[in-house]
């Protein structure tokens, strides 16, 4: 933001124009590339319209609570609205973290949803304090703002909805989508996460209530990837729902009609994609999230050549899992090409992961991808995907239809294929039964079992089951977190193949390089960036992923790797290329330290 930029917030009688001098406490964090605040700008006045007085304390972007100094209280008409103590942000966080106040309260709540609501309330009250708390306590709070609790939040989103956290674009907004985008108070958007709510985690069609997902994912873009909160825009597209329960619920917040399909659906999406490009330019990253298979693949193919789009369920999951496999190879030995993979679930995650593994194998062995795909087998609801089923398969399944007699159950497929790696991506819980896991343990010294479906209730098997049924020999990771398990006196720490490892860093890398398209090689770069962060100590502890506590450092490494690939492919619009991309990524990351208002 330069000294002439005027940021105008809409409406409100108490909104005053103020000349403010902003300093950025704790580093440069307010923009990227050409918009980046430099040290000089820390003392340069910029003009901005912000809420003052009472409404300043109610503005989550600017509120600092008791941290306002008396000088600020005088300058911004808030003297007397706060008790007389001035508390630093560090003290506020310590106050909170010392179990006296918020974190203490959050921990006391019995129900995860109460914790979720308390955190969302904090975000609504004081955004920087929310992010500071989330970053400082990431392992504890991630499962609250994200899977599994966010799933329950979506199921009950109607009763949680209080204030707008993102934009709702329904069929009623047809022809007016550009106007709707302009109603969002922030102008400079860098990342949009959009869902149509048709397949929320493994919970099915939650319609308009899917909004919790874009909100949660974008909170992680900021906390884990350092993308400014004001640059993030959650969007839910409402084309109806086929969820009978919601259709019959008098309190349902979305359109009460069956889902629009075909041309009606495609036209709305087309208008949306065009409006986004028109309003924000072509460098805005659009992350598709939790669309049903039939739309997810089409949208990615259709807009991948014209927009900066990324499907987290297809591509993000793939990059995370590939990194975990590379980590697991450090424990198992051998190369990817030495392994045989069997998937339960041939949708977005299953085929996305399968393809990225095949691409990486092809890169390593120089064999064509058509060859490397042959080490990978998929089972869907009708059994093993084999060539005799080819005619009736959806297009995204066809590359996996290898020569084999028909097999109808997962157990029989395990026995027939004898995979070294079993991956669950079906969204259906408890499908890795005792027999299936025991069969894996029969012909594998260390069976690798990835139960990736979310939330926890949909996991193919629990961590405890995997360790118990393999006498502690399994290497196990899940999509939603599981606590460590003690088996026969040994503590096993399950891995978490969680998309949150990848998308924030990937997004940051795309944003800081000004990427205009996403390319598969950038996903591989992201995956390698994550795998590179698994240390020798992690391996010795049997971990295939690095701990989440270092996630901001991990994200910076991923961002640097991705940005390097964007420049290499000539798809970067922010030129010249910074020499040290890691340093550059770190310097661009938003930190939630309070700023001084003069
Ligand atoms: O949220 C995650 O980590 C994985 C995901 O996108 C999903 O299950 O839809
Ligand atoms: Mg998802």
TrEMBL record:
InterPro entries in the cross-refs: Aminoacid_DH-like_N_sf, Malic_enzyme_CS, Malic_N_dom, Malic_N_dom_sf, Malic_NAD-bd, Malic_OxRdtase, NAD(P)-bd_dom_sf
Signal peptide (residue range)? none
Output one GO MF annotation. Answer: NAD binding
Q: Which UniProt keywords apply?
A: Metal-binding, NAD, NADP, Oxidoreductase
Annotated positions binding (S)-malate: 199, 454, 498
> Record-annotated residues binding a divalent metal cation?
289-290, 313
Under the heading Pfam families, the entry gives: malic, Malic_M
- Cofactor field: Mn(2+); Mg(2+)
Q: Where is the Malic enzyme N-terminal domain?
A: 123-304
All copies of the Malic enzyme NAD-binding domain together span 314-567
The name of this protein is Malic enzyme
